[in-house]
């Protein structure tokens, strides 16, 4: 059913609409004026309760990191860009070494310029802090921060990485973390719209956020957490498909994965996958052969000088980080012994 600007659907009719495109997006986020759909904030749309479907085309999406016999673990897309900050740190270190060399040489030769030496020292401090944070972000902490949907126990377990960027220990890998468990019946999901402003463009994004209430009959919100990654605000239907997959799974109405779907595998998880990063017809995860893919592969070969080092950095960083740890009782609940 097409979306009309004059229609504000009832919760039970929500599933009849296809929320894709600019007109549909405008209507969707306009639902904030309807008390039944008003979320937390002016840019948040509360989806119908768990008993009601929100999509006729459920899809697990691209953010499933773990599959257990009775559990699904979602995370954001952070694992897909492992190595990016380290690569940036390496480039920034060239500038840091240059500034240090110029300043040190001037001091050794007795050429002291208070103004320019101060500027260089200031820039070195800024670059040094950026490099430190980038390196620590890539090698310390956990590979991803999952949200585990436990169908057997009717729980939602939220893993939060508490590792400090400014702590010397551990040198690499995960440090402190926190796990909060909530009743599935006390969670409600909303679609939130956000904007990323650059110099010449404003990108409007949408993402899923879960709100936790005190009880089925008490709407007081006691916690919130994001779920999965972001999409364009014009493609809200993708988020609804993802949530519908989760809803059906937790309500015992659907499978772990639909036919043809699979767990997301980051490029840094294996050496071969890392070496073949961004090569569409080479290595694990390659696309079916077509003429357009052949052209894309020939183009990608021109950038092997970049893709191989980047992939290797991602592989090293991925394995320096720790895999998220679930307590034995949670693993037992989702069918892992």
Could you describe the 3D structure shown?
The protein has 337 residues and is α+β, with helices and mostly antiparallel strands. It folds into 2 domains: 11-82 and 143-333, no CATH class; 84-139. It is built from 8 helices and 9 strands. It has a 5-stranded antiparallel β-sheet. A 4-stranded antiparallel β-sheet has the order 1-7-8-9, with helices on one face. A hairpin with a 2-residue loop joins strand 2 (64-68) and strand 3 (71-74). Helix 2 (84-108) packs antiparallel against helix 3. The radius of gyration is 24 Å and the shape is globular. The relative contact order is 0.16.
Quickly list its features.
337 residues, alpha+beta, five-stranded antiparallel sheet, four-stranded antiparallel sheet, 8 helices, 9 strands, 21% strand, globular, disordered N terminus
Computed structural class: alpha+beta
Proportion of strand residues? 15-25%
> What are the low-pLDDT stretches, counting only 5+ consecutive residues below 50?
1-6
Described by strand count, sense and barrel closure, the largest sheet is: 5 strands, antiparallel
Radius of gyration (Å):
24 Å
Number of helices: 8
Helix content: 25-40%
Q: Reading side by side through the largest sheet, how are the strands ordered?
A: 2-3-4-5-6
């Amino acid at each position: 059913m097409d979306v009309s600007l004059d229609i504000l659907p009832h919760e039970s009719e929500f599933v009849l609409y296809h929320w894709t495109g600019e007109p549909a997006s405008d209507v969707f986020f306009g639902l904030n004026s309807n008390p039944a759909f008003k979320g937390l904030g002016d840019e948040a749309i509360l989806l119908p309760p768990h008993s009601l479907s929100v999509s006729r085309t459920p899809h697990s999406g691209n953010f499933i990191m773990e599959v257990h016999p009775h559990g699904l673990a979602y995370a954001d897309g952070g694992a897909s860009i492992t190595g990016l900050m380290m690569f940036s740190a390496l480039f920034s270190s060239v500038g840091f070494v240059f500034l240090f060399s110029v300043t040190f040489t001037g001091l050794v030769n007795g050429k002291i310029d208070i103004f320019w030496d101060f500027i260089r020292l200031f820039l070195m401090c800024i670059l040094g802090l950026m490099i430190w944070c980038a390196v620590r972000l890539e090698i310390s902490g956990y590979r991803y921060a999952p949200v585990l949907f436990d169908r057997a126990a009717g729980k939602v377990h939220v893993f939060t990485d508490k590792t400090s960027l400014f702590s010397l220990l551990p040198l690499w890998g995960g440090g402190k973390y926190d796990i909060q468990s909530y009743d599935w019946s006390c969670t409600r999901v909303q679609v939130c719209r956000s904007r990323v402003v650059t110099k010449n463009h404003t990108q409007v994004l949408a993402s899923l956020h879960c709100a936790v209430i005190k009880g089925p009959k008490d709407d007081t919100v006691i916690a919130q957490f994001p779920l999965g990654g972001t999409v364009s605000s014009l493609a809200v239907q993708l988020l609804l498909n993802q949530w519908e997959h989760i809803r059906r799974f937790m309500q015992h109405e659907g499978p772990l994965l639909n036919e043809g779907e699979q767990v997301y595998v980051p490029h840094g998880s294996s050496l071969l996958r890392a070496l073949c990063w961004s090569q569409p017809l080479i290595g694990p995860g390659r696309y079916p052969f077509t003429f357009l893919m052949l052209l894309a592969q020939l183009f990608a070969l021109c950038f092997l000088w970049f893709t191989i080092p980047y992939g290797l950095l991602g592989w090293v960083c991925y394995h320096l980080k720790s895999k998220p740890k679930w307590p034995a009782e949670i693993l037992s609940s989702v069918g892992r012994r």
